[in-house]
Specification:
- It is a single chain.
- By secondary structure, the protein is an all-alpha fold.
- Helices cover about 55% and strands about 0% of the residues.
- It has 9 helices and no strands.
Length: about 200
């Protein structure tokens, strides 16, 4: 596979994220996606793990300031370019909002994984908070599927996007869930799991 360059070092990417995001929840979601994408990169595209991680970290860069789907990721482009972001980085980030006019469709497998796991990690995070352990370490797929079927639970997490993401990746929904739980388990031990900040 071709080497992908983000054009931004991880430290600078985090500084850029912090400049435009003040809510702890948004920072945590960005870091969750970074960890999730790094996990998938190690399996599918190890040479580009850093790129996958930075895409995950910056995928919602403009969401706090511009939470409208028709401009989401488009407003982030000048900030990314000013920070040295490459065409590949901009394309990858914009591809997860490809329903918006002006955003490209996911082409790279990494872009498909980003699209598939963005909403799903949110659903998993919400499901974890309902468990006595407050930990992703013992979350079974069966329990997550129950939450997935309950439309009122974490209603903001689009089930259609999650289903479409699984399809884009060529996986059954169960497989996507299983793999994403495993991804989140891979970095949860280093964290305070998913208990939200006070």
């Amino acid at each position: 596979m071709a080497k992908l360059e983000a054009g931004i070092a991880r430290e600078d990417a985090f500084a850029l994220l912090s400049e435009h995001n003040k809510e702890a929840f948004h920072i945590e979601h960005a870091e969750t996606l970074e960890g999730t994408l790094r996990y998938f990169a190690r399996e599918f595209d190890a040479e580009n793990e850093e790129f996958w991680g930075i895409v995950g970290l910056l995928h919602d860069l403009d969401w706090e300031e511009f939470p409208q789907l028709e401009v989401h990721t488009l407003k982030a482009e000048p900030w990314l370019r000013e920070a040295g972001g490459t065409d590949e980085l901009v394309h990858a980030i914009q591809s997860h909002n490809f329903a918006a006019e002006g955003c490209p469709k996911p082409e790279l497998f990494m872009e498909k994984v980003l699209y598939a796991t963005d909403e799903l990690t949110g659903l998993i995070g919400a499901a974890v908070l309902m468990r006595p352990s407050k930990s992703v370490m013992n979350l079974p797929v069966k329990s997550l599927k129950k939450k997935f079927k309950d439309k009122r639970f974490a209603a903001g997490c689009s089930r259609d996007v999650i289903r479409e993401g699984a399809e884009l990746c060529g996986w059954e929904l169960d497989e996507l869930m299983e793999r994403t739980i495993a991804a989140m388990q891979s970095f949860a031990p280093d964290r305070d799991t998913f208990v939200p900040a006070e």
